[in-house]
Amino acid sequence: MIKPAFHSAKRHQLLLGLSAAFVSAQLIAQSSPKIEEVLVTGDPMQRSSVDTVSSISIIPAEQMEAMNIRDLYDLLLRNPNVNAAREDKFSVRGISNEGIGPGGTGRPTVSVFIDGARQPGRGVANTWDLRQIEFYRGPQSTAFGPGSLAGAVVVQSNAPSSEEYALNLKAGVSNYGGSEAGIVVGGPIIGDLAFRYAGETNQSDGEVTNITRDDDNWQARKRYMQRFKLGWQGQSWYSAILTYQDNKLREGSEYQPTAFGHERYATDNELGYFNDSSELWVLNQTAALNEQLSLSLILSQTENHNHRRGDYDISAEDGGYFINIVDTENESQELRLSYRSETLRGVIGLYHAEDTLFGSSHSQDLRYNLSGVQARADADLAAARDTSTSAIYGEADWDFRQDFTLTLGIRYEKNRAENFSSFIVTGADPVVPLLDITLPLDLGPVLGLVLDSEATAPSGDEVLLPKLALSYQMSDSISSFISFSQGYRAGSVDFVSEDESPSYGPEYTNNLDVGVKWQSGNWRLAATAFYIDYSDMQIGVRVDAAVFRTDNAGKAKSEGLELEFNGELGAGFSLFGGLGYVETAFLEYEDDGVNYAGNHFPNAPRHTANLGLNWQYGPYFATATVSQASNSFTDRENSNSLRADSRQLLGARLGYQDERYGIELYGQNLTDEYYITDRFSSESLGIDALYVGDPLEYGLRLHYSY
Predict the structure, then answer these.
(1) Nearest-5° angle of CA 543, CA 420, CA 326?
(2) C-alpha R_g of the chain
(3) Which residues form the TonB-dependent receptor-like beta-barrel domain (predicted)?
(4) What are the residue ranges of helices labelled H in 117-269?
(5) Which residues sit opposite 424 in a β-bridge?
(6) How far apart are CA 466 and CA 95, in angstroms?
């Protein structure tokens, strides 16, 4: 039995708010021109936003510019029921993209695609020269496959044009030594063959000073992106686009000690940095077989190299350091056959992917406690995984009556993986705890007898995932839907756990969405209520400094509501915004004698909201935005001392843009609000750290277009 999503008082307040927003928008829209339809390009069905039977946010380039969104992280902070703890750690409907807790070797729960290629890298989604970003909330396993249990993010860049040449330039400066530059150039090469090149770089000295190493640029950040696209449509029935993208990111160590968060001081005695580089290739071909049938072939390859070095205890003390290196590669092939008639639309697809992962972690001078014996240990961890995924899927919309549409979807997926891991102690010197003295006596061979391990283990599972939805066109401007779908994340094997390689099973979700969409004149409003029934949730647990394991919790839930709207107010003013509410809880989960039932998911704020007011008068423009999120826990224990802060971020943009020249002033976090987005505490590592959100930023940007 589905439980009610809200208590009575909360439900009444939400209904009143929805009614007020709906009536106000309808009155405004009576004299407004009709809003333009938006195509949801990431969905294999290629529906319009009104016909999509899920909760989805579509953020076009114009709105990203108005909000001063420069990368995916900026957008994650300003979207209903989406919350970012860090750039590569975020949640959708309260479900973290990397799962619950540290450790674990499974896939993410939210997939990120760039122009059709699955992308695991960090900092890969610059918004320079994008057409739109699509946020899919809720399970997308039937459509997007592996790693989409909680949702998907689809990034679409601008396509080459064979009709005209284009040149766009930008340059800017900001506080903290920030600078940026970008270029877009494209147009026809010969006939219907066209190209488009986009390049961008931005950097900042950062706001954190390392007082131990006397480094004012401790969190300095440099990002580089280039994208090249080649497109051809030689015949009306065939088109092809080849995309290449290269991203590089280097930034300083993220965590700060709790005692110096407000001062934005770091105390690491060891050098820390984060390097990430990604490359992707995509070839997307489409052939129209006749007026009703079309065939698409999508071939993609992505590579990511991640190199991180950091201080274990982030202090001035000599607590050891680590060097983590992870290399991943994905190759995928997807064949789609689409059919469209007056009353029936559908797609059948075949999907196959090969994933490889190799990771290594070197620990130096790590304090280790084994049965009361303390030592400074050097150790190497290596892990590898080769995964193959094959699937067949299908989805169809059938207009069986004038105002009713039935959606049926199904996906059969088979996952197989070979997992390898090894852990080797390369040296260990005993420590006298009371005197904190390290003795020059190598205990490496002794510890190695207990801790050294090497294991190879297979894993795999098969799954059949259904999707069922019913849409009802209530009037020319109002439509509604109810949908049921299943989400899935494959099981795997923990790389290292006390001389073993224990396996853990897949996790599943049953999801119910009920939504209403209203579109009239130049206004659009969408509201969705949802309930997610979680079973066998994969939860990562840190055993000690070097050992992790993954549990399958019994049951959990997530339930809530999303509301989004946008439209024209008149006199050059437009409004856009959204509200999100989510309630999460473990229902059946006990570990090591501790019952976590009733606790909330980490990094799952109950309330999120954003609002933007835009003004345009000829070439002059101005925008004011605000985004909010309530506080949230950061651990499964729901420790009050480890909460992430609530936040209210104000932004503004003011400028001039004619057909060629533009100038703008912008600001983010205008009140310079201090807020913690993530916490980390580990007794075994002797660390109590926090991650602080970005401070006040202001800058000047110039544009030129031809």
Answers:
(1) 75
(2) 26
(3) 245-670
(4) 141-144
(5) 380
(6) 21
DSSP letters, 636-692, are TT--GGGEEPPEEEEEEEEEEE-SSEEEEEEEESTT----EEEEEEETTTTEEEEEE
| Residue 339, amino acid | Y
Cα angle value 218/266/120 (rounded, 5°): 60
Alpha helices in 59-217 (DSSP H): 61-66, 72-76, 141-144
CB atoms < 10 A from the CB of 683, how many?
A: 10
List of the chain residues with pLDDT < 50: 1-35, 104, 497
Query: What's the burial of 347, exposed, middle or buried (CB within 10 Å: 0-12/13-18/19+)?
Result: buried
Residue 140: left (phi > 0), alpha (psi -120 to 50), or beta?
alpha
One DSSP character per residue, 97-133 reads TT-BSS------SEEEEETTEE---SS--B-TTEEEE
Considering the domain 8-705 in this protein, what is its CATH number?
Answer: 2.40.170.20
pLDDT digits (tens, 9 = 90+) for 631-663: 999 988 999 999 999 999 999 999 999 999 999
Q: Which two tokens stand for residue 550?
A: 């993954």
Convert the pLDDT of each residue in 136-166 to its tens digit: 998 888 888 888 888 899 999 999 999 899 9
Contact 159, 186 (CB under 8 A): no
Q: Contact, 547 vs 567, CB < 8 A?
A: no
CA distance 8 to 543: 42
Cβ-count burial 559-583 (b if 16+ within 10 Å, e if not): bbbbbbbbbbeeeeebbbbbbbbbb
Spatial distance between the Cα atoms of 219 and 210, rounded to a whole number of angstroms: 9
